Amino acid sequence: MALAESFSLVKDTTLVDEFTASGYVIRDVEDRGALDEMRHELVLLAAWLIEQKVPKDDGVFLDNIQTMIPVDKLNAFRLGIYREMNAKSWFRPTYFQLTRGMIEGLVGNELAMQNRINFSIQMPKEQTSLLDIHADVFSGETPYQVVQWLPLVDVWGTKSMFILPRTKSELVTERFKDFSNGGMRALFDAVKKDLIWLNIPYGKVLIFCPNFLHGNVLNDEATTRWSMNCRFTGLFTPYDSAEKSLGSFYLPITVRPVTRVGMAYRQPAGFEE
User: Fold this and answer.
1) Which residues make Cβ contacts (< 8 Å) with residue 233, sequence separation at least 6?
2) Strand bridging mode 225-234 / 145-151
3) If one looks up domain 13-235 in CATH, what number appears?
4) What angle do CA 237, 242, 245 make, to 5 degrees?
5) Could you tell me if 128 and 79 are in contact, meaning their C-beta atoms sit under 8 angstroms apart?
6) pLDDT in tens, 250-270
């Protein structure tokens, strides 16, 4: 039996190195069959909501949803999918299953997960789904988290999202006061040349640290972007706001027996040393 030289439990050290250096990783999902079945369930729901026949090709249907529903009904359609999918008992466990090994390698094995999975549908040239450059910590999110961002179709260029890599993002946020007059638009213009526009084919997933600047722009491609996103954090992480805390925004998903026993323990009273 070999003597140990490290406490690391991560088999894929390149995952850790890449995430630490850049603030994000793109990998194949860990269960492609589960992804395909989950997407198919979503497509069946979407077709039912807009009274369309069950499509022959799920990807083609999602890519071309802009030909089946007007923009002014898009948000109601998205919210309908959001409510129906998040009501399914299998949805959050399946979503976690797609990246469980990676999430545990990056975050830990006692986890809390966002209580609802978000949906984004960004049609070509559609202006209501834009998300300006930002970092989630600006709005009270804990800095001890990752986002699992899952495209349901091939995404690239303006059909995808952008991220400013860790080192450059940290340098920019240190001098935020320089952009106080021009706001986030001035910030975007200042870092535009350094942004990474992510190419993520269907079947792969992005896991990124939302402490670093990211966002999207107008979709100038010919087809619609569909994506989901959800946050994961350590069960005992510090939370920065009551709104975004455990029991409200986050729910425990992997609690170990010793933790359950420890949380139930009450110090006995009535004894003196």
Assistant:
1) 107, 111, 112, 142, 144, 145, 146, 250
2) antiparallel
3) 2.60.120.620
4) 35
5) no
6) 999 999 999 999 989 888 887
